[in-house]
Amino acid sequence: xxxxxxxxxxxxxxxxxxxxxxxxxxxxxxxxxxxxxxxxxxxxxxxxxxxxxxxxxxxxxxxxxxxxxxxxxxxxxxxxxxxxxxxxxxxxxxxxxxxxxxxxxxxxxxxxxxxxxxxxxxxxxxxxxxxxxxxxxxxxxxxxxxxxxxxxxxxxxxxxxxxxxxxxxxxxxxxxxxxxxxxxxxxxxxxxxxxxxxxxxxxxxxxxxxxxxxxxxxxxxxxxxxxxxxxxxxxxxxxxxxxxxxxxxxxxxxxxxxxxxxxxxxxxxxxxxxxxxxxxxxxxxxxxxxxxxxxxxxxxxxxxxxxxxxxxxxxxxxxxxxxxxxxxxxxxxxxxxxxxxxxxxxxxxxxxxxxxxxxxxxxxxxxxxxxxxxxxxxxxxxxxxxxxxxxxxxxxxxxxxxxxxxxxxxxxxxxxxxxxxxxxxxxxxxxxxxxxxxxxxxxxxxx
Length: 447
What we know:
single chain, alpha/beta, Rossmann fold, 2 domains, eight-stranded mixed β-sheet, five-stranded parallel β-sheet, 38% helix, NAD, UDP-N-acetyl-D-glucosamine dehydrogenase
C-alpha cells in the first residue's frame, strides 16, 4: 500500500452518516446493487441514488416497481415514496453524493480470462465527478489488486485527485445470496481500505446499515477473502460431483452418503452435487485467481482441477440421459426432452452461467427436440454466453406425458415433483428434487 500524506480526515463523512444526512450512490442496480441501495435507504435511513446504464431500471424503480423477483416491489415503493431512493442513468448525480459504491459485473472473456470492462467504464464515467472527501468503494468481485491497480489510476487520472489524500478508496466484497431469504444487512461486511483513513470511512459507511462490519488490513486482503469464499464452494462442490459419479458406478446413492456423513457434529460440512455450477460468482471467480496467480509464476492446480470437474458435469448428465433412454428403447436423437428449470439455482430468476443452458445446448447438438419450463424465466434473455432463443412452455399434463424424458436441471420449490413423476415416462433428476416422491420411483434416474 502506498501511504499518501494523511491530510484526508473522515470526520465530515462520519458526521453526515451519524445524523442520517449522507447521500449514497450505488452504481449497478442488479442482484447486488439494488438490495444494497435499499439497505442503505431503508435500514440506514440514508438517501440512496441508484445509477445504471440501462434506462429501463431507473424507469421501473421511480415508478415503485421491482424487476427482480428477490426484491419486493413494496420495499421499492416505500423507499421511493419516502424520498430515500432515486434512480438515474446520469453519472453526474454521483458528484452530490458522500459515497459511491460500485456493483457492476465482472464476467470472463471467451478465453476464460478476467473481463474488467464494466469496472473500467464505470471508473471512467465516475472520475470527473469524484470530489474531495468522498468515499468510493468497489464491491465487484475480482482478483487481488484490482482496486489499487485498475480502479485507483482511472479515478485519479480522471479527477485530478489522489486516493487516500483527497478521497477515500476501499473494497468491500458483495455477499448477496439471492433466493435465500437472508436480509442483506444481516450478512457480515468485509471492508479493506487503501489507507487507514479510507478504512475508517468505509467502516462508518457500512456500519450505518449493516449489523456487523469486519475490517481487514488492505483492499487486496478483502478481494482475496471473496475469492477464498467462492473457491471453497467450487472445490467442495467438485468433490461431491466427482463422488456422485463414483457412487453411481459402485451402485450407491451419493445423497444418502452425504446425509449420513452430515450426522457427524464436527469436521464435516455438507455440499450438494448437481449438473454443474451457475451464477455470477462460483463458476467465474476461481478463474480470476488462477489468472492472477500466473503473474506470480504459481499454478493453482487444485482450483483448476475443481473447475474441470464442475465444467464437465453437464456432459455427465447427458451421458446418463442417453443411457436411461437406451434402456427404454429410445435414442437421444429426435427424443422429446422437457427441461425443468433454467435459472442457475432454485427459486430465483437469474440464469447467468446456468448449467441448464449448457445442458440444452448439448441436447440440441445431439438431435434432441428440447423445450423448457421455468416459472421465473418466461423467456431466455439474449446473453453473449449462448445463442438460445426459447420461451418457457406451460407445465401441463400433456407436456409431461409426451416428453420422452423430463430433465430436472433446477429444483424450484413451486413445482409439484410427485405430479411430475406420476405424469412422466422418465425423469432425469440432477438435483435430488424427487427425494420425497414415493410412487413411481422406477421412473426416476439420478444424474
